[in-house]
Specification:
Number of strands of chain B: 3
Structural class of chain B: mainly alpha
Number of strands of chain A: 7
Distance between the termini of chain A: 23 Å
Number of helices of chain B: 4
Largest interface: A-B, 80 and 76 residues
Low-confidence stretches of chain B: none
Radius of gyration of chain A: 17 Å
Mean pLDDT of chain B: 95
Strand content of chain A: 15-25%
Strand order of the largest sheet of chain B: 1-2-3
Low-confidence stretches of chain A: none
Oligomer: heterodimer
Structural class of chain A: alpha/beta
Largest sheet of chain A: 5 strands, mixed
Order of helices and strands of chain B: HEHEHEH
Shape of chain B: extended
Largest sheet of chain B: 3 strands, parallel
Chain lengths: ~160, ~120
């Protein structure tokens, strides 16, 4: 089996080539929280979380800062904006939303009873350089939204 | 996204990340991670391959249901398309492009400084 791509080293080398003098510091923790499903999967409401933006990029405020936003899962969004994110634009494309936000596939699994249901909204959290913004602003906002719609479990699909 | 998963889990809701940057997620430390060994951009599966996307979701849901503890990591049983060169492509630094990259970095730093000034 091929070795996974080492994105941390790749990123360090790339930003050094761009002339940045200090390497990015990735988040790292010794302790990892853990929770269990509070009900059987076949009764659980599952929410999907992405890092994409709405097609009209309205998740940005007047200063250009991105915030957490939500969209309906029915009907699923026809288009999302992802071009500003770091993905491999030479090797693939993102024309198929299901390849990064598989709403239809989840709806079918809900119809078949594999899960209890899909949450009525999907949520998106921006990818940020600043750990502080994610931990103090965006993640708490996301937790609030997931609590509001009583999500029992969450699948996060970072782009 | 790893930080988000940790916050959601700490709030009592179980999470599973489905993604392709194994080293970054593993380094952070998350409750559950399903590694899909694809180019960045299609964490749930190849574009237009509903069969793969469904199988990936089912595997992720299985982890949500059965993981015994934090840092549970699994690998989806799918390879990328017939394109072995993809691994070397993303973010590569080609020495003949050194000057162009340096200039792109300068432009980026100017933009970042301007954005920072706008935010106050």
């Amino acid at each position: 089996m091929d070795q996974p791509v080492g994105y941390m080293q790749r990123t360090r080398e790339y930003y050094r080539a761009l002339g940045y003098e200090t390497d990015y510091v990735w988040a790292h923790f010794d302790e990892v929280p853990f929770a269990r499903l509070s009900k059987p999967l076949g009764q659980a409401r599952i929410a999907l979380v992405s890092t994409s933006s709405p097609a009209d990029r309205s998740n940005r405020d007047a200063k250009g800062v991105k915030h957490v936003w939500s969209g309906a899962t029915e009907p699923p969004p026809a288009k999302l904006f992802t071009h500003d994110l770091a993905w491999d634009k030479e090797s693939t494309h993102m024309e198929d939303r299901e390849s990064f936000l598989p709403i239809r596939a989840m709806q079918r699994l809900a119809e078949e009873g594999v899960v209890g249901g899909l949450a009525p909204r999907f949520h998106c959290i921006p990818t940020e350089y600043s750990h502080r913004k994610t931990m103090e602003e965006d993640a708490p906002a996301l937790v609030g939204l997931l609590r509001d719609e009583r999500a029992d479990g969450v699948i996060l699909l970072p782009i | 996204m790893s930080l988000a998963a940790r916050a959601i889990e700490a709030a009592g809701i179980p999470t599973v990340i489905v993604g392709s940057a194994l080293d970054i997620v593993e380094y952070c430390g998350v409750p559950r991670f399903l590694f899909t060994d694809f180019p960045l951009g299609n964490p749930a599966g190849h574009p237009w391959r509903a069969d793969i996307q469904r199988a990936v979701l089912r595997q992720a849901l299985g982890m949500l249901e059965r993981a015994a503890g934090p840092r549970t990591i699994a690998r989806a049983p799918f390879a990328w398309k017939d394109d072995p060169a993809w691994r070397g492509r993303y973010g590569r630094v080609d020495p003949v492009e050194a000057a162009r990259l340096r200039a792109a970095g300068e432009a980026r730093r100017r933009m970042q400084a301007e954005a920072k000034a706008r935010r106050g």
